[in-house]
Automatic annotation (TrEMBL):
It comes from the Bacteria. This is Regulatory protein, luxR family. Residues 268-277 have a biased composition (Gly residues). PROSITE patterns: HTH_LUXR_2. It comes from Auraticoccus monumenti. Gene3D superfamilies: Winged helix-like DNA-binding domain superfamily/Winged helix DNA-binding domain. Pfam families: GerE.
């Protein structure tokens, strides 16, 4: 029997998928090229790019691959049970960019007893679901979910998805910038198809970073070292480091350079340059903004 080649390293697979993501310029291309490739590599049968608002009125828009019509019909009851979703509970309790799956949050028995599974996801054959959260703004989020009908997503697949976060986020941002209308499923109050350009969830949003985190990152972007930022803001170097750790986690960045680039692309970097004044060090205070893009 011939020996099978070893599975490709997640970093190698991530490079290939990043190249696919980089080639997407429209939401239609994202659906046609990126979502099926994610399914192929990660062993999923269903992929949805979501734009979600959790309150005060639940709203959800989805770009679905492959079977749009049946998915929208099946998800008709989803809004009434969405609050029971282990993934929504996970990212509501701890907002931020990241990767998680139902299989790592609850047991198979618990999932099958969950109202989300019973009312909608069982009909779609969703035995496990991997959520890649690309952006969180106030009560809203941009995410891609990948669903499979057999087996749980592995630690290796979680690692691959985590490597892809900045590339997927950049692709979504670029696609939403394109003026070409795209077809999107609106699941509430009743399932229907609609056409959108840009973000489906319009209106003012709140950026992900707190005022202090944005201020620290702006000073780093201006070329100040961590110690210089600490002196400027009258903070300890350790506090500055903690703020930057939170920034990295929220943006899905692996370095200060990447964090600055992601914040700039999302319009979250205030123009305080090197002369920002002291802002309240309140982790619950977010910088006001109007962008609803990821």
């Amino acid at each position: 029997m011939p020996l099978l080649p070893p599975p490709a390293h997640p970093a190698v697979l991530a490079l290939d998928l990043a190249a696919t993501a980089a080639g997407c310029r429209t939401v239609a291309a994202l659906r046609r090229e990126l979502l099926p490739e994610l399914c192929r590599v990660l062993g999923a049968h269903l992929a949805i790019y979501h734009q979600i608002s959790f309150g005060p009125v639940f709203q959800e828009f989805g770009v679905v691959w492959p079977d749009e019509e049946s998915v929208v019909t099946t998800l008709a009851s989803y809004p009434s049970v969405a609050a029971h979703s282990p993934l929504i509970q996970r990212f509501t309790a701890s907002p931020g960019v990241g990767v998680s799956s139902i299989g790592e949050l609850v047991s198979a028995r618990q999932w099958r007893a969950n109202p989300v599974y019973r009312e909608s996801h069982r009909a779609l054959g969703v035995e496990d679901q991997l959520a890649v959260v690309l952006d969180v703004q106030g009560s809203g989020a941009h995410a891609i979910t990948l669903s499979r009908s057999t087996g749980a997503f592995s630690a290796r697949e979680h690692q691959l998805a985590a490597l892809l976060v900045p590339h997927l986020r950049a692709a979504v941002l670029r696609c939403l910038d394109d003026p070409t209308p795209y077809r999107v499923a609106e699941t509430v109050p009743v399932p229907r198809w609609t056409s959108r350009t840009g973000p489906a969830l319009a209106g003012p949003g709140r950026p992900l970073l707190t005022s202090r985190e944005a201020e620290v990152l702006a000073l780093v972007a201006a070329g100040l070292s961590g110690r210089e930022v600490a002196r400027r803001l009258q903070l300890s170097p350790r506090t500055v480091d903690k703020h930057l750790e939170h920034v990295h986690a929220k943006l899905g960045a692996r370095s200060r350079v990447e964090a600055v680039a992601l914040a700039r692309s999302g319009g979250r970097l205030p123009g305080c340059g090197g002369g920002a004044g002291r802002a309240p060090d309140d982790p619950g205070t977010a910088v006001a903004g109007t962008s609803t893009r990821p």
